[in-house]
Specification:
By secondary structure, this protein is mainly beta. It has 2 helices and 7 strands, in the order βββββαβαβ.
Length: 134
Amino acid sequence: MGLHIICLLDLECKADRGVIRGMISLLSLNRPAWHHAAMSQTYGIETPSGHTVQTLRQPVRYVVVIDAGDSPIARLLVDTRQQVGELDAGAPEVIQMIQGLSPAHAASGPEWDVALQAHSAQERDAAKVYTLTV
């Protein structure tokens, strides 16, 4: 039975007696010799990288249900009245968000000019604005 030992860094090897002089102790590495530092103990799958800290998006403050041609849509806006989403007004998510809230009728004020500039004055007058609690 042959024993093959690869000797690196000019180490003195004696395969017949099993003695390898000058080898760094594997116990000091706290991992097996074959273990790559970026790998986890899950069969060669790389460990996930650390999470980055990011500023989170502001929560939705206003839901504006407005007619957009064939069917009404719900525009989701933050405190600054910047639009962050748009859904079909009949979607279950929209119904759940506005459930139990009473709408403010009309989005015709000057604060809505930028957010609803694509809509006519008649559509803005008929719009329902729901204010969500944050």
